[in-house]
Predict the structure.
Amino acid sequence: MTPFEPVIGLEVHAQLKTDTKIFCGCSTRFGAPPNTHTCPVCLGMPGVLPMLNKKVVDYTIRMALATHCSVAPRSRFARKNYFYPDLPKGYQISQYELPIAEHGHIEIQIDGQDRRIGLTRIHMEEDAGKLVHDPDRPISRVDLNRTGVPLMEIVSDPDLRSAEEAGAYLRHLRAIVRWIDIGDGNMEEGSFRCDANVSIRPKGSEVLGTRTEIKNLNSFRNVEKAIRYEIARQTEILLGGGAVVQETRLWDPDKGSTFSMRGKEEAHDYRYFPDPDLLPLVIDEAWVEQVRCELPELPDKRRARFVQAYRLPETDAGVLTASRELADYFETCLKGFNQPKMVANWVMGSLLALLNAEDKSIEQSPISADDLAGLLRLIDEGTISGKIAKTVFDEMAAAGKTAKQIVREKGWVQVSDGGAIEAVVDQVLAASPDEVARYRKGQVKLMGFFVGQVMKATKGKANPKIVNEILTKKLSEVH
Ligand code: ADP
Ligand code: MG
Ligand code: ZN
């Protein structure tokens, strides 16, 4: 057992899904030829003036409301000064002392327990360009298409206590961004990026230890691995009597370790000051209310409603509200078949397994919600047996047909007609006089044998409940 407690805070940059950049009209579309989505404003020419994209503000207010932040009636843009070739102006327009939103939180579930993680702040800023390093010659090129693409930075309080919690927090944050439709949250493509601040301290201590900041984390797996590595590294240093150096470290996914990049810069190194080209941003109550009206029902609310209205277990409700599309699918299915627990089981079981195996999202599901409801109705009405239903499901996915069509084509309709089953039962009993005699002498276990014979004779289509009833009746008749 280690005597230390890890403390983690995350800084997340999420690209906002606007058509145009934050301070000019250039397109944000990904994958255009280098430097074609640029203009004097995002190229940082002297004398040009930035003009704020209202949609960026709308989207950030959406996030603020979805994470219980308070929206500042007055915030400011600030210049963060540093030199790098991907930043033609020599400064990045960001927000500093007066961010647009502060003091929020989100709830994550860890080991079946709710944990509230505080959000320190959310602010808006512009992205920088991209350096393209030539593999053959010692030169680099710069592509400024990404310069000025809108970002939202979400800073957490140092509330996370393990790599797993950091992962859960990050996933939940991404789910919200997607749910409220302001970003695509793709870590691998860089539209959702994360820096992790990690420190450790003696258990029970209230004082924060010295932290390192880890960059270059481009997948959820890497975030968790890097944090685990960093906790172990710091633990070893402290146990050996050393001290952790405050610095920025880079994660090397191939080596599975972090290495020092530079000493940690301090805020004063950036010479922040209010951007004189942009007016203070004033957001009145009406604007906030306008955005609030446009918000969909949020994930936490919807999860609680699923538990309440449909009597679903918490875990089911959690799985079904992992994305808005999945929750919509579930509720559409309910419209066609109103048994929530049975729908939940099929969606979380067969359907999610199918999507997983085919690496598809719920929007790409080969079986529509209406068609799944159709299948469940056939089971419920007794048209098909529960046993054959999974086969019908697989056929539906493969052939793109409805359950009804498949059952009709294959002749899989369950036989519930008592007369037809009785005829088969009579045949089976007549063909097995020995077993019948032994059963009547008390070997009641033979019931399974008789049921099996009837099912075999009907190719699995006989309604097992009715088969049982008829067999029981016939076998108990006195001869
Ligand atoms: P910056 O990294 O830009 O200097 P902050 O000092 O505000 O910004 O901290 C950024 C992140 O680091 C926040 O998520 C915060 O919770 C986290 N953090 C701050 N101090 C510590 C610490 N001692 N251990 C772990 N995380 C910390
Ligand atoms: Mg930082
Ligand atoms: Zn531009």
